[in-house]
Amino acid sequence: MFWNFYVLSRYDLKDTSKITLVDIELIAAMGPPGGGRNPVTPRFIRHFNICTINTFSDETMLRIFSSIVAFYLRTREFPPEYFLVGNQIVNGTMEIYKQSMENLLPTPTKSHYTFNLRDFSHVIRGCLLIERGAVQSKHTMIRLFVHEVLRVFYDRLINDNDRFWLFTLTKNVIRDHFKESFDSIFSHLRKGNAPVTEEDLRNLMFGDYMNPDLEGDDRVYIEIPNIHDFSDIVEQCLDEYNQTHKARMNLVIFRYVLEHLSRICRILKQSGGNALLVGLGGSGRQSLTRLATSMAKMQIFQPEISKSYGMNEWREDLKVLLRKVGMRGQKTVFLITDTQIKEEAFLEDIDSVLNTGEVPNIFAADEKQEVMEGVRPVAQAGNKHDEFSPLALFAFFVNRCKDNLHVVVAFSPIGDAFRNCLRQFPSLINCCTIDWFQPWPEDALELVAVKFLETLELTEVERREIVPICKHFHTSIMRLSERFLHALGRHNYVTATSYLELIASFRQLLTKRQQAVMEAKQRYVNGLDKLAFAESQVGEMKIELVQLQPKLEEAKIENAHMMQIIEIESAQVEAKRKFVKLDEEIASGKAEEAQALKNECESDLAEAIPALEAALSALDTLKARERGRTAGGERRASEASSAALHRSHYRLNHGLQYRLNHPPATLRSPSVEKLSSTKPVPGARKFRDRYNFHPADITIVKSMKNPPSGVKLVMAAVCVMKDIKPEKISDPSGTGGKILDYWGPSKKLLGDMNFLRDLREYDKDNIPVTVMQKVRGEYLTNPEFDPPKVAKASSAAEGLCKWIMAMEVYDRVAKVVAPKKARLTEAQKSLAETMELLNQKRAELAEVEHHLENLQATFLEKTEEKSRLEDQVELCAKKLERASKLIGGLGGEKSRWSQAADDLQIVYENLTGDVLVSAGVIAYLGAFTAGFRQTCTEDWSMLCKQKKIPCSEEFSLSKTLGDPVKIRAWNIAGLPTDTFSIDNGVIVNNSRRWPLMIDPQGQANKWIKNSEKENQLSVIKLSDSDYMRTLENCIQFGTPLLLENVGEELDPSLEPLLLRQTFKQGGIDCIRLGEVIIEYSFDFKFYITTKLRNPHYMPELATKLSLLNFMITPEGLEDQLLGIVVAKERPELEEERNALILQSAANKKQLKDIEKKILETLSSSEGNILEDESTIKVLDSAKLMSNEITKKQQIAEKTELKIAESREGYRPIAKHSSVLFFSIADLANIDPMYQYSLVWFVNLYINSIHDR
Predict the structure, then answer these.
(1) C-alpha dihedral over 1178, 1183, 1186, 1191, to 10 degrees?
(2) At 131, is the secondary structure helix, strand, or coil?
């Protein structure tokens, strides 16, 4: 339509100034009415020139799409036979497209049953995703065609009839257009020889996700050969997702999940592919989108809705998103749900993005310029010389946004909102591939149950039967919800989340209750065992006490007799010890004398031994190099001579020391030990080190014809030492006389080969006196007989001179030591005799001492035995006393504890069925009224009995999961006493989800406020300006919070809290609320109430909360009205009753606590409880207190019965008034204006009592 006008006057609405619009041409486009498009009035159309564009003819569409397919096959180098398959695909798509438009017509419940050319193109585009290498045969292309038809047309269908119609149409198209047998093409999916069914085609999948490590164009679109391989890939990707994201997804992978996951992955594979996911809340739309995004290596963007989130924040988020996909080229999935669409303008922008890839005028001028400059380098593709206009750059930006952005919109089909959105924003249908999430099929329900229950300890029968029972629970609630809607006009939705809640609650509650019941039973059993042990010990201890008494008396007599023996023998031992001490003193004196002699010997040896060392050293200075001798012989001779001298030295030095250091064993005494501890002789080493001689040559001396006088003098002395006689020779002075000359014998002596050996082996201990006298008189007194002087003549003579002088010193010292040796020998002999006698006496003393020690050890053992017997007798007596106390105090509990243990065993055996039904009540029945709830639980209990699942004869939620003491406290806090209200309290206490209580009469509000008052309860409304601050404080500090008076919708910013989306940050549990991350305390409790009588909560909200119908029951109202009338008529009676109720509750709580304390004390006591005096005292005092409280409670119960009898007189008026209230409350079913509140009725009731 074209509208031309040249001058148009307008006025500015702000200042009324005139605005003239000149030469403007308006072009508009519209579709024909229908499919969400409204008719346009003729008054509007008259301004336009209308041009109608007819729809394409079949031939045109076939030509267009055939050309596209042929071009693709040609560029991908497919064989020629595939071109025929390409034409068949186009013709088949045309047939399905035309038939669907004719037969699948839109209705109010099927408003999305509209088809256009985009659907046609989606099928063709899907078929062109495959590459040549992935096509094994023409059958692969045909299967791909069927797959794409199913994804585009089949996945949006909502009922079985429509789906079967399309399945039949597809079979006919394969037969008519492809000339192939449908069963043969899909033979690999058939079960045996049966025809291919819709169920079989669920396993037909194509995708590019089988190699998750690849990215982008490297990923190949292929047929999935095996669904189990696909499941393994998904498990791997899910693990990777959970490791890289704070918010984990605990998904069970089964075929239903794989089907929808594959569909979403296919949409993301296509450039600009968008999805409309339709399903009830909790069906997995968001979770599967996140997982598919992760598998496709893309980013995900989802707005975080807060209370203050508005249009400005929405537009800013869109700008960020468009910059990310358009400027930076990041492939991104934009996920948004219907609950996040706070304003209709959000959908207008989404509609624009789906249609054009942009939001008109979202960027300001400067922002738009920034965007264009950001994409310029990419548009130029490296060629900086290319110039682009601003319009071209922005168009390039928009095209990148369309290619890289995938919009996924998740809607719920419940209510009118979905239909209205599709009607107002047709792009949600035209530009999106629709995936309708059907309720979970039977196999999905079964696989999930099996997966979650595999860790529970169940019998084979229970494990086999519980799965179909869970499936029955789920399907029966669907039927019950329909009856509930028809009968009372109340909505209740059953989703996959409800089923998961059933399984999770059953797992958690069964484990918890089994542990609690078994612990309680074990406490009773332990208490009974302790009592039985005490009873059995009484008789044994009496016998033991009788047997111990004579043993104790006998032990006392034996101890007294042995004490007398020990006293006598101790005196004898002491006398003998004195005699031995005197002998030891005598021996010590003799040892001291011997030590003195030894010291003198050592002193003299200090001179004798160095003399010997000097002699050896002097000889070592000599070496003979006689001609004709071999070096080896000379060495052997030298070593032999040296060994002989050392043996002499050893005999002198060590002989005496050995005798001193090793006296006979009989001589050992402290004094003798001191005597034998001699030190090495001092001076020997020092003297030897002083003479470090270098050997001289004897041969030189031997060859001297006329030796110096010093040499002759030394050799003469050597001859004297050797006792060699001199020769008489003529006097060299010429006197003619004869003189004695030693030189001749000396030369003979020097010529002797054993000369040095003889000197080393010289018998120095037996040198003749005449020899030493002559040496001392004639030679040592000669001034020339001096080693330094002799050394001038010959170094060899010097060594011999030193040897002679050393022998003289040795001889002189040895003769002094010899007498002392003799005396030392005598002293040692006397000492040995004394020590021998002393050792005999010592042996006698040791013998008697050992005997005495044995007696004392025996006496000690007897004394200990007596003490042990005394202690045993005393302990036995105390045990008897304690056993009497224990049996007397707790003996009366034996039968009650035994009965309680048996009852708990029965409860434990029935827990599987009872907890299963209880989990069903918590997961499904909270929103139902008492009658529907009762009918359903009876049906479930009967089913459990039929399936041989152990359960109670009459199921009671409060008995299975409730605590009587806690329930009594709830009643005192304002919870009505009827079974329905108590069950509601049990559900609140055990549900894994936060409770949303439908509370038109304020019963739940009153109960929560009273029961949580001590825990610093905070109360807020959504209308409060600072409710988010209060909420954050309660979450951080773990205090309870009550959100009251909510409507049918909650603030979207509460969603993370409703889903309990906590995560770890820095080791601390945190939660994100809007843009704020706060610490999360698991002590936090969240209660929600509404005053709406019949609210309609959408599945998206109902699955996140535990809906509870807290409307008052006739029984509960009757009790309240009875209390009011009694309080008015007999106030003292009601006051006394209320006081008794409080006292009774306190008494029962105390009794339970005392019993728990007694049982825990009995269980914690180790070993024999009769030996633990403190435990017996604790038990005794606890039992005394229990008896006192029991007496008080008995009196209170009697009084309460009397009061109840008196109150029963007013029962008819209360019952009649209760019936009256529910009668007038039902008038609202006739006309909504007949609304009466409980507060109004109670006031009317009170006024009628006053006015009678």
Answers:
(1) -150
(2) coil
- Please report, for residues 725, 755, 801, the alpha-carbon distance to residue 765 in angstroms, rounded to integers and kept in the order given: 22, 19, 19
Among residues 738, 748, 743, 800, the alpha carbon closest in space to that of 775 is found at 800
| Contact between residue 848 and residue 569 where contact means Cβ atoms under 8 Å apart | yes
C-beta of residue 1101 within 8 angstroms of C-beta of residue 1049:
yes
Cα separation of 1097 and 491, whole Å?
8
In one-letter notation, the amino acid at residue 874 is: E
How many angstroms separate the CA atoms of 340 and 275, rounded? 17
Taken in order 561, 565, 571, 574, the sign of the CA dihedral is negative
Strand ranges, E, within 128-248: 206-207, 222-223
- Alpha helix ranges (H) inside 891-910: 893-909
- 1113 within 8 A of 976, measured Cβ to Cβ: yes
Tokens matching residue 442: 């039977």
Structural contact between residues 11 and 60, judged by C-beta atoms closer than 8 angstroms: no
Per the model's pLDDT, the better-predicted residue between 945 and 3 turns out to be: 945
Its sign, for the CA torsion 73, 78, 79, 85, is: negative
CA distance 1220 to 210: 68
Q: Cβ contacts of residue 690 below 8 Å, gap of 6+?
A: none
Q: Which pLDDT value is given to residue 536?
A: 65
Three-class DSSP category at 947: coil
Q: What percent of the chain has pLDDT over 90?
A: 25
Give the whole-angstrom CA distance, residue 322 versus residue 353. Answer: 10
Coil, strand or helix at 1076: strand
Cα 587 from Cα 634, distance rounded (Å)? 55
- Vertex 34: Cα angle to 31 and 37 (nearest 5): 60
Check residues 931 and 751 and name the one with the higher pLDDT: 931
In b/e form, how buried is each residue of 466-504, taking b as 16+ CB within 10 angstroms?
A: bbebbbbbbebbeebbeebeeeeebbbbbbbbbbbbbbe
Question: What are residue 299's DSSP bridge partners?
Answer: 332
Backbone angles phi, psi at 750, to 5 degrees: -65, -30
Residue with tokens 């308006």, as numbered in its chain: 26
Q: Which two tokens stand for residue 572?
A: 């004898």
Angle between helices 460-488 and 911-924 (to 10 degrees): 30
Mean pLDDT value across the chain: 80
Terminal-residue alpha carbon distance, the chain:
80
Enclosing H/E stretch for 22: strand 18-27
Residue in 1014, 1000, 1021, 1001 with CA at minimum distance from that of residue 1087: 1021
Contact (CB, 8 A) for 548 and 873: yes
Q: Are strands 727-730 and 1068-1073 parallel, antiparallel or unpaired?
A: unpaired
Q: Provide, for the chain, the percentages of residues in helix, strand and coil under a 3-state DSSP scheme, each rounded to the nearest 5.
A: 65, 10, 25
- Tens of pLDDT, residues 1039-1078: 999 999 999 888 888 888 998 888 888 889 999 887 788 9
Whether 435 and 288 have beta carbons less than 8 Å apart is answered as no
Angle subtended by helix axes 58-75 and 117-127, to nearest 10: 20
What is the Cα–Cα distance from 297 to 215, expressed in whole angstroms?
7
Instruction: Could you list the beta-strand ranges (E) of 636-704.
Output: 696-697
How is residue 1140 written in tokens? 């008794």
- Please calculate the CA angle 1096-419-1091 and round it to the nearest 5 degrees: 15
Indicate the angle between helix axes 930-946 and 911-924, nearest 10 degrees.
150
For the beta sheet containing 1062-1065, the strands, ordered from the edge strand earlier in sequence to the opposite edge, are 1062-1065, 1068-1073, 1076-1079
At 1127, which amino acid appears?
A: A
Write the single-letter amino acid at 731: D
pTM exceeds cut of 0.85: no
Span 1183-1210, average pLDDT: 71
Region 436-463 average pLDDT: 85
- As a whole number of Å, the CA-based R_g of the chain is 59
Cα 556-558-560 angle, rounded to 5 deg: 70
